[in-house]
């Protein structure tokens, strides 16, 4: 069946538009880590020209921590839609979600080993089980739990950061650790996979450290989904404006401090405290980003914004994996072997070009197909069978599932 508009009436446009927008932030952050060993090690590139310093600083301030929280919020929101869908189909919602989680874990492991060790799908697949256990709690309880989980997490992190300001600047050994991945990623496809395998334990530890933030955002999304805040008429303009104003007021100063501590001009010993402050204020800026996009959706620009972002959001899983595939082709021995040779400003331009390409391809694809390739696979695992034809589905929330 051909869909001429590229917009599926069975989905929630706001959810897809937010997801499509969040793909840009995910790409900007991940491409920097996939292309630049200094970013991976968390150290400053010596002798970097001003434009490269500015690019790193802007990515840290505007994108780092903000968009994975937005993606996680949308995962929690879409969980409520999936539960409603399964119940209306008289299906076993728990079994469906368990199969879906297994699919995410398997895709995440493959992604981490073959392409990018900083994968988030594995984390979603595992932490989603906690979301399943919490599915019966009320919205107010979910918000309180999220506040406690995230609040304790960032207080501990900020406290450790304050203690770290008394320690000397970055260790010289950090620069020496760059040599191994440079050789591995420029070597052969085999050395690329081996390097990803070697990094996997560290990546899993990183996922564990991110878990409180992801889980907190899951629970906020669960609460929002139960209240249907992203459905038509779910959030009024005055409320969106208030959240935007508060989010920018709290989020921008924190983001500026975080970037200054991570990338200068503050000394490197402020980095851990900067991470704590950045994590503390990231939800505020994420909320401001989301509300600004929702305001655009309800403005005279709404149709244009939907046409731009909704198709990419419908293919979020395919686009997420595609971003890694393209970037690793450029960076490693899978293709051009430019790892560590492209400055941050050029990487940022590359990310913009890849995102523009994905927006165009997503629009073209959704005019002819209901699912992207990765979405079709994950849905087949979820349903334990071939996904049905478009005419067999009911309800506006039927397909509004995060990452597929």
Automatic annotation (TrEMBL):
Membrane as UniProt keyword: yes
Stretches assigned to the DUF418 domain: 224-383
Keywords per UniProt:
Membrane, Transmembrane, Transmembrane helix
Domain Heparan-alpha-glucosaminide N-acetyltransferase catalytic intervals: 11-160
Q: Where are the transmembrane segments?
A: 12-34, 54-77, 97-114, 120-138, 145-164, 203-224, 240-260, 272-297, 317-336, 342-361
Name the InterPro entries on file: Bact_Transport_Assoc (IPR052529), DUF418 (IPR007349), HGSNAT_cat (IPR012429)
Q: Which Pfam families match?
A: DUF418, HGSNAT_cat
PANTHER family assigned: INNER MEMBRANE PROTEIN
Please give the name of this protein: DUF418 domain-containing protein
**Organism annotation:** Streptomyces violarus
């Amino acid at each position: 069946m051909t869909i001429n508009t590229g917009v599926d009436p069975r989905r929630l446009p706001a959810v897809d538009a937010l997801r499509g927008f969040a793909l840009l932030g995910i790409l900007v952050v991940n491409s920097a880590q996939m292309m630049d060993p200094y970013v991976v090690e968390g150290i400053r590139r010596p002798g970097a020209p001003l434009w490269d310093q500015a690019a790193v600083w802007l990515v840290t301030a505007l994108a780092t921590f903000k968009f994975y929280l937005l993606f996680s919020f949308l995962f929690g929101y879409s969980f409520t839609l999936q539960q409603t869908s399964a119940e209306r189909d008289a299906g076993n919602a728990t079994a469906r979600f368990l199969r879906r989680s297994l699919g995410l874990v398997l895709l995440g492991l493959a992604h981490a080993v073959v392409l990018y060790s900083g994968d988030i799908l594995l984390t979603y697949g595992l932490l989603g089980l906690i979301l399943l256990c919490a599915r019966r709690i009320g919205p107010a309880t979910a918000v309180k739990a999220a506040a406690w989980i995230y609040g304790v997490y960032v207080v501990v992190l900020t406290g450790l950061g304050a203690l770290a300001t008394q320690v000397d600047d970055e260790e010289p050994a950090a620069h020496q650790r760059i040599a191994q991945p440079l050789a591995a990623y420029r070597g052969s496809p085999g050395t690329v996979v081996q390097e990803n395998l070697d990094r996997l334990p560290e990546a899993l530890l990183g996922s564990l450290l991110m878990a409180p933030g992801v889980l907190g955002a899951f629970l906020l999304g669960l609460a929002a989904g139960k209240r249907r805040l992203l459905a038509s008429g779910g959030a009024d303009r005055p409320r969106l404006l208030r959240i935007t104003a508060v989010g920018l007021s709290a989020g921008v100063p924190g983001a500026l401090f975080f970037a200054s501590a991570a990338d200068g001009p503050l000394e490197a010993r402020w980095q851990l405290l900067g991470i704590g402050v950045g994590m503390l204020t990231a939800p505020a800026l994420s909320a401001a980003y989301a509300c600004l996009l929702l305001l655009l959706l309800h403005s005279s620009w709404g149709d244009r914004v939907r046409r731009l972002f909704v198709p990419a959001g419908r293919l979020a899983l395919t686009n997420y994996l595609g971003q890694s595939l393209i970037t690793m082709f450029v960076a490693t021995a899978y293709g051009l072997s430019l790892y560590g040779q492209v400055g941050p400003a050029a990487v940022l331009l590359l990310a913009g070009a890849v995102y523009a390409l994905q927006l165009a391809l997503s629009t073209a694809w959704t005019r002819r197909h209901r699912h992207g390739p990765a979405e079709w696979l994950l849905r087949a695992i979820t349903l334990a069978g071939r996904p049905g034809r478009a005419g067999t589905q009911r309800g506006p929330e039927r397909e509004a599932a995060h990452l597929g």
